[in-house]
């Protein structure tokens, strides 16, 4: 197209100040290129100048460049969409099988992980069961070690006491001995702060020959002389072993017979309590002495209250014992298996406050003699000295109280014969002594040196049976008896 026609075309397309013309390019019916345009109005005031025409051409070129850039951008987006569509179509064609294969792989992985977790769980359960068994075994070993530790501590304490005894047995110590003060409530001249002050008072007791001649060979001096059977203790025989405990719970305990047996029990009926442990409730009953010796109980009582220490006794068909961790004495009727009475001993020490020298929470010790039921204990007011109280066997009311000048923690054990308290010097020495006596009828005390043998070197219970005129004792797993002799009062 000639330049003049292009200028004319530009003049037609670009009017003054606005683009109002529209131009089309197309082939006609004969195939020749034909340009068609229209304008908003056929009347124009004038054609633009050459400068205006060039400016219009530049604008057209700029618009054309922008349109080409937009077109390229559109083509690029279209290509991206086509590629995306291709991938989507391809995925639809192959997806189900690939998804199924992927799911199967994932399911297999999950199954393997589950099997591993189950195996680990079984291993953990096995480990836990083994640990539980080990824990139980360790706890049992711990209990045994604690018991052995207590035994060792008592033996150490005993060794210390024996060493102290050896020290005071030198001539210088014997030269310091003085008469024992009389009167149950007199102030003692002994040093109450010294655990061994009674040992300093020990001395030989002169027994007149006339008294020795009056002694009964069988020990039943009173009955042979026509009296009540009471007298002063002058001799203790060799221990006779009746039974040996089989387990650690029989290290120490208490055994007894009823000196005033009531139906359905007899003079042969024997009771035994193992006192090792924290929950002591079982009382073994034996109808015959032979059953007791062989270890075949005829009945086992389970006490409704826990028992403490080795101070229990049986009297007139009832078991009397100290309630655990309390100063309460309890009466348990054996035939009906019921609690009949309980009484708190005023001010009595308990649970290790004023025990015998061997320990065992023996703060409250019950005893029986020809005159009835007694309780041996101590109080803060008595400063650790032994206090005696006579008890009513029905309701446990106190019928009388005596305060001695014998320090409870410095003696190994005590028992009562005919209203007189006797104490044992040591629970572990093979050659111990009955070292003190306190007479409740006169309120006086005196030193003794009556030989007493701890054959098994750990006497945790010593009681007197007024019917058999014997001492019953529990010596390091062994239940033993001692014959005794009494002189006329």
Which helices and strands occur, and which strands form pairs?
Elements: H1 3-13, E1 14-15, E2 18-19, E3 22-27, E4 33-38, H2 50-168, H3 171-174, H4 197-201, H5 209-214, H6 221-224, E5 232-236, E6 240-244, E7 253-257, E8 270-274, E9 280-286, H7 289-294, E10 299-315, E11 318-323, E12 328-333, E13 338-344, E14 365-369, E15 372-377, E16 385-391, E17 398-407, E18 413-417, E19 420-424, E20 432-439, E21 444-452, E22 459-465, E23 470-475, E24 478-487
Antiparallel strand pairs: 1-2, 3-4, 5-24, 6-24, 7-8, 8-9, 9-10, 10-11, 11-12, 12-13, 14-15, 15-16, 16-17, 18-19, 19-20, 20-21, 22-23, 23-24
Question: How does this structure look, described?
Answer:
It is a single chain. By secondary structure, the chain is of the alpha+beta class. 32% of the residues lie in helices and 32% in strands. 31% of the residues are buried. The N terminus is likely disordered.
Sheet with most strands: strand arrangement: 7-8-9-10-11-12-13
What spatial form do the alpha-carbon principal axes imply? rod-shaped
Indicate the mean pLDDT.
79
Quaternary structure state of the chains depicted: single chain
* Helix proportion: 25-40%
The secondary-structure class comes to alpha+beta
The major β-sheet equals: 7 strands, antiparallel
- How far the N terminus sits from the C terminus, by CA atoms, comes to 168 Å
Percent of sequence in beta strands: 25-35%
Number of helices: 7
| β-strand number | 24
Uncertain runs are 2-19, 170-227
Give Rg in angstroms: 56 Å
């Amino acid at each position: 197209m000639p330049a003049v026609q292009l200028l004319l075309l530009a003049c037609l397309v670009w009017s003054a100040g606005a683009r109002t013309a529209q131009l089309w390019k197309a082939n006609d019916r004969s195939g020749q290129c034909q340009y068609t345009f229209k304008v908003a109005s056929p009347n124009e005031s004038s054609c633009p100048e050459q400068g205006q025409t060039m400016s219009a051409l530049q604008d057209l070129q700029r618009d054309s460049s922008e349109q080409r850039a937009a077109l390229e951008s559109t083509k690029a987006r279209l290509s991206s969409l086509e590629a995306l569509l291709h991938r989507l179509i391809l995925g639809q064609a192959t997806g189900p099988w690939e998804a199924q294969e992927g799911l199967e792989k994932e399911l297999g992985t999950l199954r393997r992980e589950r099997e591993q977790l189950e195996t680990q769980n079984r291993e953990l359960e096995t480990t836990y069961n083994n640990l539980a068994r080990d824990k139980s075994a360790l706890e049992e070993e711990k209990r045994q070690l604690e018991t052995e530790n207590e035994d060792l501590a008592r033996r150490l304490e005993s060794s210390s006491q024996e060493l102290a005894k050896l020290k005071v047995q030198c001539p210088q110590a014997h030269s310091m001995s003085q008469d024992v003060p009389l009167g149950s409530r007199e102030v003692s001249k002994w040093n109450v702060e010294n655990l061994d002050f009674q040992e300093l008072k020990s001395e030989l007791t002169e027994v007149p020959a006339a008294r020795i001649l009056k002694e009964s060979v069988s020990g039943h001096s009173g009955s042979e002389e026509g009296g009540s059977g009471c007298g002063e203790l002058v001799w203790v025989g060799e221990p006779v072993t009746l039974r040996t405990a089989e387990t650690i719970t029989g290290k120490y305990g208490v055994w007894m017979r009823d000196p005033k047996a009531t139906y359905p029990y007899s003079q042969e009926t024997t009771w035994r309590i193992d006192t090792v442990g924290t929950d002591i409730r079982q009382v073994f009953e034996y109808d015959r002495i032979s059953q007791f010796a062989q270890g075949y109980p005829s009945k086992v009582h389970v006490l409704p209250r826990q028992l403490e220490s080795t101070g229990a006794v049986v009297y007139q068909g009832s078991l009397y014992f100290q309630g655990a961790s309390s100063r309460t004495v309890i009466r348990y009727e054996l035939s009906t298996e019921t609690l009949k009475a309980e009484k708190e001993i005023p001010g009595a020490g308990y649970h290790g406050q004023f025990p015998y020298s061997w320990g065992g929470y023996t703060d409250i010790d019950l005893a029986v003699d020809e005159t009835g039921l007694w309780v041996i204990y101590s109080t803060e007011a008595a400063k650790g000295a032994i206090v005696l109280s006579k008890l009513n066997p029905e309701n446990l009311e106190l019928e009388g109280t005596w305060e001695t000048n014998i320090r409870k923690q410095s003696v190994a054990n005590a028992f009562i014969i005919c209203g007189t308290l006797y104490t044992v010097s040591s629970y572990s020495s093979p050659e111990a002594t009955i070292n003190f006596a306190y007479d409740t009828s006169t309120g006086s005390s005196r030193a003794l040196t009556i030989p007493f043998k701890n054959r098994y070197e750990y006497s945790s219970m010593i009681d007197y049976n007024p019917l058999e005129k014997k001492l019953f004792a529990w010596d390091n797993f062994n239940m033993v008896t001692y014959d005794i002799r009494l002189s006329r009062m």
